[in-house]
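One-letter codes give the sequence; backbone shape is given numerically. An example follows:

. . .
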Amino acid sequence: MIRATSYLALCLTLAAPVPAHALPHSAADRARFFAICAGRYSALADHEALFDGAASEQAASRRDQFVGLLDAVMPDARDGGLTGVMVLSWRIAAKHAQAMLLQSATFQLDLVRATQSRRRADHYFDECRDGVLDG
């Protein structure tokens, strides 16, 4: 169990976003932000597909919006030395970390841990929304 907890902590650390309400200025940082958010919403779309098709479609639409933003900044980010492999790794790590939080929030028998996981998952989604809407 300690290994799983350590792994989750590592994934969350790797997938840590830029601060909310502050859309990054550099193209590479924006690409990282958009990739992480696309990964998070990809996890939500997969998770919601188990329970609510409409919510899954909404999450997939939000994911696609972040992918569109990512595609828009990638030419400048590549000019700055960012590789597609790095962007993909950010997206996958964020998806995995968010999926683990969503699974814990939904299936964890310990209600305190489930609540903590739900709050963290919601916080990360808020960062994505706030970073774009308020940035």
About this structure: The chain has one domain: 2-15+26-133. The radius of gyration is 15 Å.
